[in-house]
Amino acid sequence: MPQRSAIPTPPVSARCRTACAAGLAALLLAGCAANGPPAPWKTSAMPPAQAYALANRLSWGANPGAVAQAEVQGPDTYLARQLHPRAAALPPAVQQQIDAMTISQRPMDVLVAEMDQRRRDSDASNPAATEDERKAA
User: Fold this and answer.
1) Is the pTM of this model over 0.70?
2) Burial zone of 55 (CB within 10 Å; 0-12 exposed, 13-18 middle, 19+ buried)
């Protein structure tokens, strides 16, 4: 009596792997989002050496102001405030200039589509030009 070979399993498709990866990512993100806002900040002072190391690791490099903040706030509060900063209050004139910018008024995908269309129109108007000639124009 011949031995039966194991039933071959079909290979997993790329679509299936992508769907599984997306599902896993969604579950992980949902778990993170379920925690809500950070807990009330604890305040506990820390030694200067530890404050320097924390400020150096979490910022663009330790400076006297960052080290002083870390010392006073403690590691939990300093970390929470680095991750969830307050909204910057800009002078009204500066905020008005930012609000007047095109990028503040229209979504990025619309601006990209318009720029792409301009490029296509330019290419169509001068099809014989080389890329260097188009850049110079």
Assistant:
1) no
2) buried
